[in-house]
Design goal:
Layout lengths: L2 H25 L7 H22 L17 H12 L8 H15 L19 E3 L2 E3 L7 H7 L1 H22 L3
Antiparallel strand pairs: 1-2
């Protein structure tokens, strides 16, 4: 296995574990401290999956290691590729793909390092200043969590699981 393939496989394995934590939170919500923790698992799974797919597609691993901003653009492409791989009608999935584009942007800003030029300090990991007060992620109502609960959002999570499983199989075959 080449050095980039090892990086891609490692990212894919970590994405799998992060999404499994999300899935566990879905199955046993009482086991989760707060919704911000659940979203942290989703953000990490999406970021690592996107990095795995980018490296598998030829991007040098070292180019991806200094930023968390690798979800908004690649994730809709990755999900669309999964729909095609499953031989589903892409035209019939436009509602899901539209939600995925919006959700990918929202998931990316869950990382505290992605602030959209200071306009989005909310994140699922650390408190932030809002005027003269300090806001904790524990007290914030995160938009992506609501989006994941609608039918297209649940389809997105299933597609995400599918692409992680497929990526692990593809990269595992290289070992």
């Amino acid at each position: 296995m080449s050095e980039p393939a090892r990086w891609a496989f490692a990212y894919a394995r970590q994405a799998d574990v992060d999404l499994r934590a999300w899935e566990l939170c879905e199955e046993c919500p009482e086991a989760v401290a707060a919704s911000c923790h659940k979203l942290l698992f989703l953000q990490m799974a999406c970021e690592k999956l996107c990095k795995a797919r980018l490296i598998h597609g030829g991007t040098a691993p070292e180019l991806l290691q200094s930023s968390h901003g690798y979800i908004a653009n690649p994730l809709p492409v990755v999900i669309r590729q999964q729909i095609v791989f499953m031989k589903r009608d892409v035209g019939g999935m436009q509602g899901v793909l539209s939600l995925v584009r919006h959700l990918a942007e929202e998931i990316e800003v869950l990382s505290p390092s992605i602030r959209r030029d200071g306009r989005r300090p909310d994140n699922c990991e650390y408190p932030w200043a809002a005027g003269d007060r300090v806001v904790s992620p524990l007290d914030w109502n995160f938009h992506p969590l609501r989006l994941c609960g609608v039918p297209a959002g649940r389809t997105f999570i299933k597609l995400l699981r599918g692409v992680i499983d497929r990526t692990l199989a593809e990269l595992g075959a290289l070992t």
